[in-house]
Amino acid sequence: VQLVESGGGSVQAGASLTPSCVYHGFSDSKCMGWFRQAPGREREGVAAIRSDGSSSYADSVKGRFTASKDNAKNTLYLQMNSLKPEDTAMYYCAIGLGLCIPPLASSWVNYWGQGTQVTVS
């Protein structure tokens, strides 16, 4: 079981980034998603994708971020547009073997990626 993230970086406000997360060792995951943690703050849910393809987003990123997955490539993506300084955080992909309930809480997570840093100035 392995999740390997990439695609973070340092950008100006208004720019876009698309971190990705390649996962190995899963034959059936019910829930996938992204969390983030800024310095001095608790980890928070950003987006969750259910096995039927439906998704949920934090209010702070709705309309700007889009989570998607490519099962053929075993890859999870987080397209982030119109980035703001308050989006600065370490971003973690996550996989759960159960249902996404509640979608933005970490209680469903069984496996975490190592994190990729996103800095917006």
Folded structure, characterized:
By secondary structure, the protein is mainly beta. The chain is 0% helix and 47% strand. It has strands at residues 2-6, 9-11, 20-24, 31-37, 44-50, 55-57, 65-70, 75-80, 89-96, 111-112, 116-120. Strands 2, 4, 5, 6, 9, 10 and 11 form a seven-stranded mixed β-sheet that branches. The protein has a four-stranded antiparallel β-sheet with strand order 1-3-8-7, with no helix packed on it. A hairpin with a 6-residue loop joins β4 and β5. The model has no long low-confidence stretch (mean pLDDT 94).
Strand proportion: over 45%
Can you tell me the overall shape?
globular
Q: Unreliable runs, pLDDT <50, ≥5 residues?
A: none
* Proportion of helical residues: under 10%
Q: How many strands?
A: 11
Class computed from helices, strands and strand pairing: mainly beta
Q: What would you call the quaternary organization?
A: single chain
Whole-number mean pLDDT: 94
Between the first and last Cα atoms, what is the distance in angstroms?
35 Å
Note the total helix count.
0
Major sheet: 7 strands, mixed
- Rounded to an integer, what's the Rg over CA atoms? 13 Å
Order of helices and strands: EEEEEEEEEEE
